[in-house]
Design goal:
This protein has eleven helices and 29 strands. The chain is an alpha/beta fold. Strands 1, 2, 3, 6, 8, 9, 11, 12, 13, 21, 22, 23, 26 and 27 form a 14-stranded mixed beta sheet that branches. The protein has a three-stranded parallel beta sheet with strand order 19-18-20. A two-stranded antiparallel ribbon has the order 4-5. The radius of gyration is 22 Å and the shape is globular. The two termini are 34 Å apart.
Length: 519
C-alpha cells in the first residue's frame, strides 16, 4: 500500500494549513466516481485517514461545512482526489478497467451511526453537502475549503455506504433514528453487504471539574492521601467509576451530585476551595454552582450512544435493559442534553467545565442537526458523557476519560480482557450500487481491518497521557499472542464467537489451537 510522506492520520489533522499550490480538485472539476457515505462520527478521523491514504500525492482537496467556526466538518465533509489502480486494485470507471479515477468521497456525520444503516436499508434519501453550488471558499493558499451546507447547498441522496460503531441489527429501540424505521434483519441481509472491520475502544468522558472531584474523593490527590496533582492524567492518577455507577448516572437515577456519595460522604462536600489549571492555563474552581447531574447524550441513532447502552444498560440486548431516554427535570435534575456529533459532545462537556454559555448551533435548515447550546445559563457543573478514544488525545478540550471498574481505556487493557467498553464496528454498502463504487468502499473497509494500517495510519494519533488507545484488528483470521503488538494490534476477544457478530455477547477468545492467549 502506498505511503504518504506524512502519515495520513497526521495529514488529515493538519490539512487546514497544508498547501499543495494550485487547486488539486476544485469544486468545478467533474468527478469520475462520486461516493456518498453516512454514519458514525466517532470514526471520522479514521475514515478520512483511510481514504486520504489511497490518494495520489498532490491531488487532494478537502471540503468541510463551516456552520460553526472552529468546528468545521462536524456535520458534513468531502474528500476529492485521484485514485490509481495500484492503490485500489480492480479500479473501474463506468464498468471499464481504469488506471486512474477522480473520486469525490462525501461523508455525512450528522445524526451518527444509524444514518449509515437504517436509511440504506429503507432506501431513504438524506441530506448530503454539495460542493459545486458556489458554496465553498478556499482557505488561503491551502487545499482546504469551507462550505455553506444549508438550503440549496444540500442534496438529498440515498447513501451508497455507511459506517457504524455497532452492527446494523442494534439500531432499534433507543438507537432508531427519527428519519427511518427500526432495522429489520431480513431486509438488512437482502439490501446490504456488511463487513466487520475493527475493534474500537470507547470510554466515559467527564468534565474536567468532575474528574478532579473524583480524584479528591478517591484519595488520589497530594494532601488527601495520594501523590497526584489536580488533573494529572497518568494511568495511576485517573479516578474510576464502577459499571454500576455509570449505569445509575446515564439511566437518570441520580438527580444531584449531593446524592452521589463516596465512602459515605457526598461528593459535593469534598471540593470546597479546590482548584485546578485547565489546558488553556486558566485556574478554575472545582466546586459546581449547579449541583444537578448533567448527562451529555448523543441523539437516537448514534453508534457512540448505542455502544454505551449495550455495555452499561443492556439495551437493546434485553427487553429488561435500562433506558437512556428519560425526561429528567431542568429544575430538580438530572438533566439530559441531546447532541448530534462527537464534536458537540466535546463542546457540551467543556461548557460545563468552564461555566460558559457558548452557542453551538450547527444549522437551522437541516432537521437532522440539532442546536446544542446546552449550558445557556453559563453555570459551572459536573457532566458525564460518551465518546470514543479517537478523541481529545492531547487534552485540548476540557474533559478527560476516567477508568471503569479501576481499568483505564487503553489498547493493552482491552487486549487483556480487562477493559470492557469496546465494540466491533462495521462497514456496510448497498448491494444495488455500481461496481465502481463497491470496489473503493470494499478497499477502505479492508484497510480498516488491517493491523499494520490501524497502527501506522490511525493509532499514532490516539496516544493519550495515560496510554495508547484506538483500534485493534478483529482476531478472526489474524494471528495474536499473549503480548500486545502495538505495531500490529489484534484483538483476541470476539463478540462473534456464538456465530454472527453481536456486540451484546460477552466477548471471549474463540476455542483454537493457539495456546498463547492473553488471559
Amino acid at each position: 500500500m502506498k505511503k504518504q510522506l506524512l502519515s495520513a492520520a497526521i495529514a488529515v489533522a493538519s490539512l487546514a494549513g497544508f498547501s499543495q499550490g494550485a487547486f488539486a480538485h476544485a469544486p468545478s472539476v467533474t468527478p469520475d466516481i462520486e461516493i456518498f457515505m453516512s454514519g458514525a462520527t466517532a470514526q471520522d478521523k479514521a475514515l478520512a485517514a483511510l481514504f486520504v491514504n489511497l490518494c495520489d500525492a498532490g491531488t487532494l482537496d478537502v471540503y468541510k461545512d463551516n456552520a460553526t467556526a472552529g468546528s468545521e466538518g462536524k456535520a458534513h465533509s468531502a474528500y476529492f482526489c485521484t485514485l490509481n489502480s495500484t492503490n485500489v486494485p480492480g479500479l473501474t470507471v463506468n464498468g471499464a478497467a481504469a488506471t486512474t479515477a477522480k473520486v469525490l468521497f462525501h461523508k455525512r456525520s450528522a445524526g451518527g451511526s444509524a444514518q449509515g444503516v437504517n436509511p440504506l436499508i429503507d432506501g431513504v434519501a438524506i441530506a448530503a453537502m454539495r460542493i459545486d453550488n458556489g458554496n465553498c471558499t478556499q482557505q488561503g493558499a491551502t487545499n482546504t475549503w469551507f462550505c455553506n451546507a444549508s438550503g440549496a447547498n444540500l442534496t438529498n441522496v440515498v447513501s451508497d455506504a455507511g459506517i457504524s460503531d455497532v452492527e446494523p441489527k442494534l439500531f432499534v429501540g433507543p438507537n432508531k433514528p427519527s428519519n427511518a424505521s427500526e432495522v429489520d434483519p431480513v431486509k438488512a441481509d437482502a439490501a446490504l453487504n456488511v463487513v466487520p472491520a475493527a475493534a474500537l475502544v470507547f470510554g466515559v468522558p467527564v468534565s474536567d471539574n468532575l474528574y478532579v472531584a473524583l480524584q479528591r474523593a478517591q484519595n488520589l490527590l497530594a494532601g488527601f492521601g495520594g501523590s497526584c496533582a489536580p488533573g494529572d492524567y497518568t494511568e495511576a492518577c485517573m479516578p474510576s467509576l464502577s459499571k454500576q455507577q455509570v449505569a445509575e448516572l446515564i439511566s437518570g437515577q441520580i438527580k444531584r451530585w449531593s446524592e452521589f456519595k463516596v465512602n459515605g460522604t457526598a461528593l459535593t462536600s469534598l471540593t470546597a476551595g479546590l482548584t485546578y489549571t485547565d489546558s488553556d492555563g486558566t485556574v478554575r474552581n472545582v466546586t459546581p454552582n449547579d449541583t444537578k447531574v448533567h448527562y451529555c447524550k448523543r441523539i437516537d441513532g448514534s453508534g457512540t450512544g448505542a455502544q454505551q447502552y449495550v455495555k452499561f444498560l443492556n439495551n437493546p440486548c434485553s427487553s429488561a435493559g435500562l433506558s437512556p431516554d428519560w425526561p429528567g427535570s431542568p429544575l430538580a435534575g438530572p438533566v439530559k442534553h441531546e447532541i448530534s456529533g462527537s464534536g458537540d459532545m466535546e463542546l457540551c462537556l467543556e461548557d460545563f467545565a468552564d461555566g460558559e454559555a457558548v452557542a453551538k448551533q450547527i444549522t437551522t435548515t437541516n432537521p437532522d442537526v440539532f442546536n446544542t447550546a446546552v449550558n445557556t445559563a453559563g453555570n459551572r457543573a459536573w457532566a458525564i458523557g460518551q465518546q470514543s478514544l479517537e478523541n481529545n488525545a492531547t487534552h485540548a478540550k476540557h474533559y478527560r476519560f476516567i477508568k471503569v471498574d479501576g481499568v483505564a481505556p487503553t489498547l493493552e487493557q482491552a487486549f487483556r480482557g480487562k477493559y470492557m467498553d469496546w465494540v466491533e464496528q462495521t462497514f456496510q454498502w448497498r448491494k444495488a450500487i455500481s461496481a465502481d463504487k463497491s470496489t473503493i468502499i470494499a478497499k477502505i473497509a479492508a484497510d480498516a481491518a488491517s493491523p499494520t494500517i490501524l497502527a501506522t495510519e490511525l493509532n499514532i494519533g490516539f496516544v493519550h497521557p495515560f496510554g495508547q488507545s484506538g483500534y485493534l484488528a478483529i482476531g478472526n483470521g489474524n494471528n495474536f499472542t499473549d503480548t500486545l503488538n502495538v505495531n500490529a494490534p489484534v484483538m483476541p476477544y470476539s463478540h462473534a464467537v456464538a456465530g454472527s457478530l453481536s456486540n451484546c455477547q460477552v466477548p471471549v477468545i474463540k476455542n483454537s489451537t493457539n495456546t498463547s492467549k492473553p488471559m
